[in-house]
Model the fold of this input.
Amino acid sequence: MDIVIKEIDSLGRIYIPSEWRKNWRKVLLIRMPDGSIIIRPIRKKLKLTDLIDSIVVDLNPEEFADTHKLRGKLREEKIH
Done:
């Protein structure tokens, strides 16, 4: 396992060594469980259902008919 120590720049960015990134796509999965940061490259095109099993929201059934409105409502919801 390679380990490097990097500083965060003034814009909140970190540099990931190019040899680590050479076979990655430009999409990363970033999680923060228990105060640790986990960064994983996404190796295939993902759908939302690949990342989560279920979500509970308080929406009316009519709001599922228009996907644009549904996305807007989901963004408004506070997901815990």
Notes: Strands lie at 28-31, 38-41. The first helix runs from residue 18 to 21. The chain has one domain: 18-76.
